Hints:
This protein is α/β, with parallel strands linked by helices. The protein folds into three domains: about 20-75, CATH 2.40.50.140; about 140-275, CATH 2.40.50.1070; about 285-460, Rossmann fold (3-Layer(aba) Sandwich), CATH 3.40.50. Helices cover about 25% and strands about 30% of the residues. The chain has a seven-stranded mixed sheet. Helix 1 runs parallel beside helix 11 and helix 3 (about 190-200) packs across helix 4 (about 225-240).
Amino acid sequence: MTIRDTAPKGEEKLRAGAELDVAFTDLLANGQGVGRAAGMVVFCFGPLPGERARVRIATLKQRYAVAEMLELLEASPDRAQPFCAVFGACGGCQLQHLSYPAQLAWKRESVRNALARIGGFADPDVAEMVASKNARGYRNKMALVVDHRVAPAALGFYRQRSHDIVPVDACPIVSPELSEILTRLHELRARADVAGMLDQARHIVARSAHATGQVVLTVTSARPSDAAARAAPALMRDVLGLVGASNSYDPAGENAILGRHHRLLAGNAEIEETIGGLRLRVSPASFFQVNVEIVAEIFAFLDRSVTYPAKVVDLYCGAGTFALHFAQRGSSVVGIEEDARAVAEAVANARLNGLEQAVRFQTGRVEEVAGTQALAEADAVFLDPPRKGCDEAVLAAIARVRVPQLWYLSCDAATLARDLKFLVANGYRFRTVQPFDMFPQTGHVETLVLLEYADFASRLN
């Protein structure tokens, strides 16, 4: 599509409230289109690359402006009709207005751009995206906010870039089981027991199992909720698919979704999931991937791409999903995770799969325990850090002992590129960069990078 520059001529400065036509050429992960007007960058949610829109300047900063879209003037052939009524208000999705094939292409390019711009890698070779089999209804975890501004209290998600709440009574992104739970809670919210529970609650967090259809939820409150305890038995009876209810309380801060303490109110604290023959019991608070079909794809990719070595160290192992997969394939595994509850779940899941002798889990901050003897003896290290990436001390410890293989799984292309730059500068080279669409309809992308130490033999010197 040819874009004509019709921005106001000769205008040296934009002003708040000004309306103008802007051509958009790029897209940010938060869903904002990027254009230019009067020599300034303009960010606006709604327009896609290759589109022109009439916008109103809402916020003016020294180097950029934020606008709101008034009218789409020229549409991209990649534009799609959003399928959710609250898209654009709810902060859960950013890309429903972009067709799914175009989302995949954009995400692959975002990985390439990060590797080139932040990592400094010239023309990085990034494989085609592995698509999610389900671009909707894939998410196995739902964190609802309780809106106390209305009576009876309502449920919703946070508005884009805000702590305002968008009311919802269904969600097409979460699993059908979770969406049904949301709808049922909305229907029951005026009932005395449920209304009392919501009055004491900050959040409702629920998790579903793709394999079994089971759902468990936890009610987050400032202190132990007597109202949640009273409501739990009736919820178990009246909400189809719910197999357990718990109370999460004493959050660490105002922004915390879960509390530091948990108590079971009724039924089971966990659901059982199966991925690639691996049985996993997880709770709403578990460190567990939200799209199990993509986890199965990552398992399959690793099975095709690597020969599992004798000794593997899994850093940031969470509830042990990948550590147990490696152990199931014959490796001896050490998993390290700082959250004691996640480690307890990992130990229980090892027992569930009969892998207690093949895997050992250790509680501690990865930055503090990465230099252990297990790392020095490892044939491979699997890294699945939080969005902020790895501490440089962890990467330095790996490079210092020249672990032959690294398998780095990241949910943030920018911090991945930063960490890869360090690793390559310290003796590693890429074998494969494989992105996976763990989070359809959002700006997030999961990327697995296989690396090897440039000279395996040098590790023996």
